[in-house]
Amino acid sequence: MKTLIKNARIMDPASGVDKPGEVLIEDGRIVEITAANVHTPQKSDRVIDAQGAVVAPGLVDLHVHLREPGEEYKETIASGTRAAAAGGVTSVACMPNTNPPLDNLAMVELVFSKAKQQGVVNVFPIACITKGRKGEELTEMGELQAAGVKAVSDDGEPVASPALMRSALQYAGMLDLLVINHAEEKSLTENGVAHGGFMAAKLGLAGVPRSGLEIMISRDLLLAEETGCRIHIPHVSTAGAVRMIREAKARGVKVTAETAPHYLVLTDECLAGYDTNVRVNPPIPEASDQAALIEGVLDGTLDAIATDHAPHSRREKEKEFALAAPGISGLETSLSLVLTALVATGKLSLLEALRRMTVNPANILKIPKGTLAVGADADIVIFDPEAGRVIQAKEFVSQSNNTPFDQWKVKGRVLATLVAGTPVYIDATFAGNIKK
Amino acid sequence: MGLQRKDLLSLEELTAEEMLLILDTAQSFKEVVQRPIKKVPALRGKTVVNLFFENSTRTRTSFELAAKRLSADVVNFTASTSSLAKGETLLDTVRNIEAMNVHTIIMRHAYSGSVRLVAQNIKASVVNAGDGTHEHPTQGLLDMFTIRECKGSLAGLTVTLVGDIIHSRVARSNIHGLIKLGAKVRIVGPATLVPRSFARLGVEVHTNLEEAIKDADVINILRIQLERQDGKFFPSSREYATMYGVNARRLKLAKPDVLIMHPGPMNRGIEISPRVADGPNSVILDQVTNGVAVRMAVLYLLSGGENADENVN
After folding, report:
1. Which of A197, A202, A323 sits opposite B111 (nearest CB)?
2. Which residues span the domain enclosing A256?
3. Nearest to B90 among A198, A274, A320 (CB)
4. Is A389 exposed, middle or buried (0-12, 13-18, 19+ CB in 10 A)?
């Protein structure tokens, strides 16, 4: 099976390439990247005419909730991976806060096998750090790693005990498993439902102080530094966290970090109408934090942009703000939000934006993804970065449409997504560009 | 002109003109409730539901009297004993009540923003009778009515709010209302209970009671919710009374004709000394009286009423 993508604007952050050309795919792998009009289309089984659109590595999303098993009414591996495909995402790392949690080999194999049977993008299950996410005993990380797990996290729950966290870093470090710790000091955050600033105070919403997040991040940086082990800080949302991570990196601490698109485009002013779609954990910060986050993305302190895709049904969101489940369904809006907020505004080049959504997260997970290198899996997104569109939550492929971005006018339309050379998403306007 | 809105959810969203309209209308209704027959036909044939998801005696009774004196049919719905215990969501509960064709829902609820959620999802008018720690607009209006009645105007007055500001819906409604009507507002209490960020609302933020009540025209003393405290925000009610209790000695720092207000229920001897509560400066019971007139005005204006006089006379 040969697939030719012609008339492409090839963008591969891993190699720094940004040039017109063609991509030839054979048996699921990229076999050749050439200048334009080199290949004879008749020799390929499938020809995709990109008509000048960007052809880039499929996005790699480090932080996704697929909700299966346990909450299939919100999302399933089938629906979540299709939502990913619609967003141009070809690899997702899914969080283990399922029910039951992914804290043993059987659960992880369930996800691998469902992903193989029902999924359309690559799924990398993240296993728990501790059994039952209770922060008491380590999971059997050796066995999990052997089964293909790349990272561990008790997502939603921090490993509260510094001693256990230190031990987890050492044990996981020995196995080269990435440790992702949900950064919250619960005594400061447990009642909070919004960023503890002026808006929350005015609206009578219990606040999460920045210290409630930053105390845990500073602890984890100390532990990573002392043990020499890798740590990954998820969903960074405050200026102080960016500063601490920047300083730690300068000292040589093996730390990587991600932020999410919603922190780059919303500020706590959005709380005004008590829209539960902006209830997210960590909470949307204020403008000064947002400026620091953008600075952190630009200077590389924040290596990756990950969605924290957190689908919830209407029954969890149509409620009192403080009782609504935190989270945003983000897979289908992340590329557009980044293009709109960072690229169209001239803050970041398109290639650098893509770097933070492809090769950087792939390198953090140590998976051979996020590149158009010859020999790599042909996981590819074709998109038009300039096309305007209006986000329509109703039309989400995800089973849940909890988004604060409904009706937002954004840039960037995903035209097609390929996983191992096979189209898994084709935009209606692009169907005619694919010839068998 | 009536109130061109379906709901009364907060004083933050009202204009000064709208608040003055309510206060002026309440003035007319206050005359009504001082008559031997305290009833006008303004809301005859309309149904008002008191939907209280939190216990309350005085606010519910005040709204009930206000609605009855306007000749509305009033239903009291105490949610904690009914559907919520069976797991029904807030919106389902409210949609069920609305399906019985009610005109106005007066709602109190433990969570901030909950009343707005309801108002956005039903056609009936919704009056916020206190949503979490957000706002309690009719309390703010009745406080302003009482001040205006005693002082003639709110403009230029110094009003000090004392106590647990951060958990107080009364404080937020007072702040928004008073500032729009030209008063100067100070807030004071322990640093754990007074958000410094409220300076952005245009108030002076204090932690020293004596500084905060110096030359004040009005001292509005908020209830300390002892049940909420458990030693996390201040060490003891004894220390609170020592540092933040308004007593006769401290009252001398304020203007001689200072008004003493309290939304009730009072913890005598803690946030307010009995001598102050019962003294000549206290208008605490006038607040309660005025509450009925103010709530009549709100119900009347939201139901499309314009000129109170034809119904009053």
Report:
1. A323
2. 58-365
3. A320
4. middle
- Chain B: closest CA distance from residue A195 (Å): 13
Please report, for the domain that includes residue A115, its CATH number: 3.20.20.140
Residue with tokens 């049919």: B73
> Per residue of chain B (313 residues), what is the pLDDT tens digit?
579 999 999 999 999 999 999 999 999 999 988 889 889 999 999 999 999 998 888 999 999 999 999 999 999 988 765 556 667 889 999 999 999 999 999 999 999 999 999 999 999 999 999 999 999 999 999 999 999 999 999 999 999 999 999 999 999 999 999 999 999 999 999 999 999 999 999 999 999 999 999 999 999 999 998 777 777 899 999 999 999 999 999 999 999 999 999 999 999 999 999 999 999 999 999 999 999 999 999 999 999 876 555 555 4
CB burial of residue B56 (10 Å; 0-12, 13-18, 19+): middle
Count up the domains in chain A and report the number.
2
CA distance B300 to chain A (A): 26
Per the CB < 8 Å rule, is B112 touching A202?
no
Q: What is the largest CA-CA distance in chain A?
A: 66
Task: Extract the residue ranges of chain A whose pLDDT is less than 70.
Answer: none
pLDDT in tens, A17-53: 999 999 999 999 999 999 999 988 888 999 999 999 9
* Any domain includes A372: no
Question: Is residue A131 a contact partner of residue A96, using CB atoms and an 8 Å limit?
Answer: no
Q: Locate A172 and state its tokens.
A: 């996981």
The full length of chain B comes to: 313
**Are A84 and A233 part of one and the same domain?**
yes
Nearest partner of B9 among B129, B178, B141, B139, judged by Cα? B129
Q: Do B132 and A319 touch (CB under 8 A)?
A: no
Q: Which helix (H) or strand (E) holds A29?
A: strand A29-34
Asked if B172's CB is within 8 angstroms of A198's CB, the reply is: no
Pick from A187, A202, A271, A278 the residue to mutate for testing the B interface (most B CBs within 10 Å): A202
Closest CA to B177 of B222, B115, B135, B133: B135
A384 & A345 share domain: no
Question: Of B60, B145, B69, whose CA–CA distance to B106 is shortest?
Answer: B60
- Residues in B lying within 8 Å of A, measured between beta carbons: 12, 89-91, 109, 111-114, 116-117, 131-135, 166, 169, 172, 195, 197-198, 200-201
Q: Are residues A416 and A278 in the same domain?
A: no
Residue A51, amino acid? Q
pLDDT for position B313: 45
- Asked if A66 and A51 sit in the same domain, the reply is no
Question: Which run of H or E residues covers position A46?
Answer: strand A46-49
Classify residue A371: in a domain, yes or no.
Answer: no
Pick from B89, B117, B133: CB nearest A204:
B133
Is residue A394 assigned to a domain? yes
pTM (2 d.p.) = 0.94
Supply the ipTM of this predicted assembly: 0.92
CB A257 within 8 A of CB A233: yes
Do A347 and A391 reside in the same domain of the chain? no
Distance CA A20, CA A40 (A): 16
How many Cβ atoms from other residues are within 10 Å of residue B285's Cβ? 11
B98-137 per-residue burial string, b: 16 or more CB within 10 A, e: under 16: beeebbbbbbbbebbbbbbbbbeebebbbbbbbbbbbbbb
In a domain, A251, yes or no: yes
Q: Looking at the structure, tell me whether residues A320 and A305 fall in a common domain.
A: yes
Q: Which residues of A carry out catalysis?
A: 308
Q: What is the 3-state secondary structure (H, E, C) of B35-67?
A: CCCCCCCCCCCCEEEEEECCCCCHHHHHHHHHH
Which residue is listed with tokens 């933020």? B205
Structure tokens at B206: 């204090």
